[in-house]
Amino acid sequence: MMKNKKNPSSPATPYLIMLASFIFRAFYVSMISIYKNQHDGGTPFTAGHLGYITYYINNNAFPNFDVSKVDQFWHPPLHYFLTANFLKAAWYLFPAQNGNYEIAQALPLLYVTLSIYLIHRSLRLLFPDDQRASNIALLFAAFQPSFLFRSATINNDALATLLTIAPLYVLLHLIKADMAEYDFFNQRAIFLSENGKYGFHLISKLRISKFFHIFLMMLFFILGMWTKKSVMLIAVPIGLVFLYEAFNGQKKNLITAIVLFVITLPISLGWYIWMYLKWNIPFNFVWNLEKPDMAMGYIQGLSPLYRILDFSPAHFKYHYVFAGSNVNAIDINPLTLLIKTSANDLWIWSYVDGKVMKLSYIILLLRILFTVIFAASLIILIADRRNKPITHIKNKLAIVSFTITSLVSFYVFAFQNPYICSMNYRYIEPIILCEAIFVGYLASLNRVPRWILSLLTLLLCVASVMKIMYF
Question: pLDDT at position 410, please?
Answer without folding.
Answer: 96
